[in-house]
Amino acid sequence: MIIDSHAHIFTDDMIEHKDRYCDDKQFALLYYGKAKIANVTLLMDSMQNNGVDASVALGFTWQKNEYARRHNEYMAMVQERHKGKVYAFGAIALDTDIYQQIKNIKQIGLYGIGEVAFYVNGFTEEEETIVSNILAIAGDMELPVCLHVNEPVGHIYTGKYTTDMQRLYALLSQYTNTAVICSHWGGGLLFYELMPEVKKSLQHVYYDSAATPFLYSDNIYSIAIAICGKEKILFGSDFPLLDYSRYNNSIQLLGENAQWIADKNMKKLLRLL
Ligand SMILES: [Zn+2]
Question: Mind listing the pLDDT tens digit for each residue in 43-59?
């Protein structure tokens, strides 16, 4: 079985009137112009074409509460309509009370929170407070959090910003009851799990493979497994940026480990096991 842990979908209205939603700075920064966004129909088509059994549909980190609210309504609706195929995470708005938003995400039956990202401001002190709140509340409500983390070196691309590893590590070490998925291999955070105390502090942290073909050589899979263990790595595509076809070879090469990365670990996070 293959579960894609990192796919992005938006409402039909957001697709049809993409430019209208660009009055939200976070959305505009990532999607203004030609950048592709998809709805659940496109996601289901891609899953069918690629033999993907289920996807975690991620929301977005909006500036505006109204957009996050609409997004979450859609997520609840598609999850209900595609039971067992779509497991949705809730969108968050930066300008609104975090507790109320997460409470609502839990109430409407979504499976987690994210992808939490700070495209406009980067990961500064203010954002640190927001992440801290999210991790604390999500932990209490038993919801996993998907956090966008970029590698601090290498080429620049849309949506890339620097996350202070020291701050991120301190936050993650503090909220050990919250399952956190650090996207894009945690921007390299996983390499520090070679340090025994870091490994111990990050037992609740997972890393996904989203956008790997654009970022790393395929060796990253076996190296990450060797460092963190197969139980902490998740296959995620970053659909519609990329789909499963770009990962199939790398996943197949993992042999017995493949079932953990492409299935079991996410099932555990979704509490399906
Ligand atoms: Zn991301």
Answer: 999 999 999 999 999 99
The span from the CA of 67 to the CA of 268, in Å, is 30
* Distance, CA of 54 to CA of 45 (rounded, Å): 12
Report CA(180)–ligand 1 centroid distance (Å): 13
Q: Which domains does the chain have, with CATH numbers?
A: 3-222+233-269 (3.20.20.140)
pTM of the model: 0.97
Which sign does the torsion angle of CA 148, 38, 231, 107 carry?
positive
Taking the centre of ligand 1 as the mean of its atom positions, its distance from the CA of residue 140, in whole angstroms, is: 24
Ligand 1: centre distance to CA 115 (Å): 7
Q: Hey, what are 6's tokens?
A: 């990192």
Distance 17 CA to ligand 1 centre (A): 23
Question: How far away, in angstroms, is 119 Cα from ligand 1 center?
Answer: 10
